[in-house]
C-alpha cells in the first residue's frame, strides 16, 4: 500500500491531507458543540466595557492574570464557579492567559469594587501587602480609545451576528438588552454615560473632572470592564 | 584483539575505577556494609551495571556498523538510483503495533473521553467527598477553632479590602475592629439606611424622619455630631447620650443592642449581622461591598464569628 502511494503523488497528497485534516477536525468540531454556544446569561460587551477590554489588552494584563477558573476545589473556593466554554462566546480574542503571576480575574467583578480597583491601580501595595504588581498611574491620565471599541462592536455585529440591540435572557429570568449606537457620536455618548456611573464611585478628582468634561480616562474604562467580569 | 573491544575494556575499567574512587571518598564499602546503608549499595550496584551495559551495547553497535552488510528484498522502484528494502516489520513489533491500534480505537470510542470520564464529574465528586469530610470534621467546633478558621478565610476573602489588621486600610473599607465609625453613623442618620442588616428590608428614615423626643423637634446638626461621636465611641461618655436616648433608643434599644425585626445592634458586631452583610452586600458611607455567597455554611459561621470577635476585645 505504502509503496503504491509513493509511486502516485496525487493519492499521496490526498492521504497526507486526510491525516492532517484529522488533527484539524479534533480542534474544530468541539466549537460546534452545544457547550460552546453562549450560555444563559452571556451578553456582549457594551461600548465602555469593550474599551476597557482594549485597555486590558494594551497593558498586557493577560500576561500575568488568567481568566480561566479550572474545576479544582482550591480554585473554585477562591475565585468562584469554574469557567464554562459558553461564557467566552463574545470574547474576541479570549484572554485565558497562560500563566498566573497575579490572581485569576475571570469573576473579579463579584468580589472587588470600583473603589478598590482605583486604589489598587494607583498603588497595589497599599491594599495587597507584598504585591509585585506595578502601579498603573498612566491609566488615570490617558484618554481611552472609545472609537476603536465601537468599530470592533460594529464588526462583530456584522460578521459574527453578535446580538446587540437584542433582548437576551439572563439566568435569573430577567431580560437584558445591550445597546449598540447607530453612529459614532451615539457610541461616544453612551460610553460617557457608562463612564459617569463608574466615576461616581471613584475618588480621584482629576478623573471625575475629565468625565464631567466629556472624556473617558483609561482607568474608568478598565474598571467598567473589570466590574463586568462575573 | 579488535581495537573497539580493547577501547571498550579500557573505558569500562576506567569508569569502574572512578566508581571505586567515589565510593572510597564516601567512606568505603566497609562503612556502607557496617551502616547497613542498602540504598547507597544499590546505587553502587546500579552504577556498575550501567557502566558495563553501556559499553557492551555501544561496542555491539559500533561493531555492527563496521562489519554488517545490508540484506533483504529491494523494492522495485528506485529514486535516482537509491533503493528501498521491503523487509517485513519484526513480528513482536507488529503484534504490539496492532494491539496499540485496537486499544486506541477503544480509547477514543469507549474509554476516555466519550463515556467513562468527565472532568467536571470528577470535580463534583471530589467536592462532594471533601464537603462530607469537612462537615464531619468541623461539625462541633469550639470557639477557638471557629475563629481560627474564620481568620484564615478572612485573609483570602476579606483582607484585600479590610486589610490584614481588619482596620479597613485607611478608610478603604469598614474598620472591623470597631462596631461603627463616626462617619458611618453620620451618613446613616443623614441618609437613612436599608442595609438588610435585619435580614429583611427594614428602612431607617433619614434625618427628616428622626425626631428627638427630648426637644420634640427634628434632630439638629449639632445633635447629629454629638450622637455620632457617642455611638462610634461605643455608647460611652455623656455627650450625645441624651440625644441617643431621645432619638435612637426607641428602635435600637436603650443599650444600643437593637431589637429583633426592628433595628440592628449598634453597640456590638454580632455574628448574625456579619452574615447578613456577607449575604446581601452593603452600600453605605464608605462605598459598596459586594455580597460573598461563595462560602459554605460552616465557613460562613466561622467568618461571622471571627469578624464579630474583632471588635469585642
Can you characterise this structure?
The complex is a heterodimer of chains A (230) and B (313). Chain A has 230 residues and is mostly helical. Chain A has 2 domains: 31 residues, no CATH class; 182 residues, Cytochrome c-like domain (Cytochrome Bc1 Complex, Chain D, domain 2, Orthogonal Bundle), CATH 1.10.760.10. Chain A is built from 10 helices and 2 strands; from the N terminus they run αααααααββααα. In chain A, a hairpin with a 5-residue loop joins β1 and β2. The longest helix of chain A is centred in the first third of the chain and has 20 residues. The radius of gyration of chain A is 22 Å and the shape is globular. With 313 residues, chain B is mainly α. Chain B has 2 domains: 65 residues; 169 residues, no CATH class. In chain B, strands 1-2 form a two-stranded antiparallel ribbon. The longest helix of chain B is centred in the first third of the chain and has 30 residues. The radius of gyration of chain B is 40 Å and the shape is elongated. Chain B starts with a helix and ends with a helix. In chain B, 21% of the residues are buried. The mean pLDDT of chain B is 85.
Structure characteristics:
heterodimer; A: 230 residues; mainly alpha; Cytochrome Bc1 Complex, Chain D, domain 2; 2 domains; 10 helices; globular; B: 313 residues; two-stranded antiparallel sheet; two-stranded antiparallel ribbon; 11 helices; 57% helix
Strand content of chain B: under 5%
**Strand count, sense and closure of the main sheet of chain B?**
2 strands, antiparallel
Instruction: Write down the domain tally of chain A.
Output: 2
Calculate the mean pLDDT score of chain A and round it: 92
Give the SSE order of chain A as H and E letters.
HHHHHHHEEHHH
N-to-C terminal Cα separation of chain B, in Å? 91 Å
Computed structural class of chain A: mainly alpha
**Low-confidence segments of chain B, ≥5 residues, pLDDT <50?**
none
Low-pLDDT parts of chain A are none
Taken in chain order, the helices and strands of chain B follow as HHHHHHHEEHHHEEH
Give the mean pLDDT of chain B: 85
Number of contiguous helices of chain B: 11
Seen as an oligomer or otherwise, the chain set is heterodimer
In CATH, the architecture of the largest domain in chain A is Orthogonal Bundle
**Greatest chain-chain interface?**
A-B, 24 and 28 residues
Specify the CATH homologous superfamily of the largest domain in chain A. Cytochrome c-like domain
Helix content of chain B: 55-70%
The structure class of chain B reads mainly alpha
Amino acid at each position: 500500500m505504502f509503496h503504491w502511494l509513493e509511486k502516485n503523488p496525487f493519492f499521496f497528497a490526498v492521504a497526507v491531507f486526510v491525516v492532517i485534516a484529522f488533527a484539524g477536525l479534533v480542534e474544530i468540531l468541539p466549537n460546534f458543540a452545544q457547550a460552546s454556544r453562549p450560555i444563559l446569561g452571556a451578553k456582549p460587551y457594551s461600548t465602555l466595557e469593550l474599551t476597557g477590554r482594549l485597555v486590558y489588552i494594551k497593558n498586557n494584563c493577560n500576561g500575568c492574570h488568567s481568566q480561566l477558573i479550572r474545576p479544582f476545589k482550591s480554585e473554585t473556593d477562591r475565585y468562584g464557579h469554574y469557567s464554562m466554554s459558553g461564557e467566552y462566546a463574545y470574547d474576541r480574542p479570549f484572554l485565558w492567559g497562560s500563566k498566573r503571576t497575579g490572581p485569576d480575574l475571570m469573576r473579579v467583578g463579584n468580589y472587588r469594587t470600583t473603589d478598590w480597583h482605583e486604589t489598587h491601580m494607583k498603588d497595589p501595595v497599599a491594599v495587597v501587602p507584598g504585591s509585585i504588581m506595578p502601579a498603573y498611574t498612566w491609566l488615570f491620565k490617558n484618554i481611552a480609545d472609545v472609537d476603536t471599541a465601537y468599530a470592533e462592536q460594529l464588526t462583530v455585529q456584522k460578521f459574527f451576528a453578535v446580538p446587540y440591540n437584542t433582548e437576551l435572557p439572563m439566568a435569573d429570568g430577567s431580560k437584558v438588552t445591550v445597546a449598540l449606537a447607530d453612529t459614532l457620536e451615539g457610541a461616544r455618548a453612551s460610553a460617557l454615560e457608562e463612564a459617569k456611573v463608574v466615576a461616581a464611585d471613584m475618588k480621584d478628582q482629576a478623573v471625575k473632572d475629565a468625565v464631567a468634561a466629556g472624556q473617558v480616562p483609561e482607568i474608568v474604562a478598565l474598571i467598567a470592564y473589570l466590574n463586568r467580569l462575573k | 584483539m579488535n581495537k573497539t573491544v580493547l577501547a571498550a575494556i579500557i573505558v569500562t575499567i576506567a569508569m569502574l575505577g572512578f566508581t571505586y574512587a567515589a565510593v572510597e571518598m564516601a567512606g568505603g564499602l566497609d562503612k556502607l556494609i557496617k551502616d547497613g546503608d542498602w540504598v547507597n549499595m544499590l546505587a553502587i550496584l546500579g552504577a556498575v551495571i550501567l557502566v558495563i551495559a553501556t559499553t557492551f551495547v555501544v561496542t555491539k553497535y559500533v561493531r555492527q556498523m563496521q562489519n554488517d552488510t545490508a540484506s533483504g528484498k529491494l523494492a522495485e522502484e528506485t529514486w535516482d538510483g537509491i533503493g528501498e528494502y521491503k523487509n517485513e516489520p519484526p513480528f513482536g513489533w507488529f503484534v504490539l503495533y496492532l494491539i496499540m491500534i485496537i486499544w486506541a480505537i477503544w480509547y477514543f470510542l469507549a474509554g476516555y473521553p466519550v463515556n467513562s470520564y468527565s472532568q467536571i464529574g470528577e470535580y463534583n465528586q471530589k467536592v462532594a467527598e471533601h464537603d462530607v469530610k469537612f462537615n464531619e470534621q468541623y461539625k462541633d467546633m469550639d470557639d477557638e477553632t471557629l475563629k481560627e478558621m474564620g481568620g484564615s478565610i478572612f485573609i483570602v476573602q476579606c483582607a484585600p479590602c479590610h486589610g490584614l489588621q481588619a482596620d479597613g486600610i485607611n478608610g478603604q473599607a469598614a474598620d472591623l475592629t470597631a462596631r461603627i465609625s463616626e462617619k458611618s453613623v453620620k451618613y446613616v442618620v443623614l441618609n437613612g439606611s436599608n442595609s438588610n442588616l435585619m435580614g429583611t428590608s427594614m428602612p431607617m428614615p433619614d434625618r427628616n424622619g428622626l425626631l428627638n423626643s427630648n426637644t420634640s423637634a427634628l434632630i439638629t446638626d449639632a445633635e447629629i455630631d454629638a450622637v455620632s461621636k457617642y455611638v462610634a465611641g461605643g455608647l460611652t461618655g455623656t455627650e450625645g447620650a441624651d440625644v441617643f436616648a431621645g432619638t435612637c433608643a426607641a428602635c435600637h434599644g436603650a443599650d444600643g443592642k437593637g431589637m429583633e425585626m426592628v433595628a440592628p445592634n449598634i453597640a456590638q458586631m454580632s455574628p448574625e449581622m456579619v452574615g447578613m452583610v456577607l449575604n446581601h452586600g452593603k452600600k453605605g458611607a464608605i462605598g459598596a461591598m459586594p455580597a460573598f455567597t461563595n462560602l459554605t455554611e460552616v465557613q460562613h459561621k466561622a467568618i461571622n464569628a471571627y469578624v464579630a470577635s474583632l471588635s469585642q476585645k
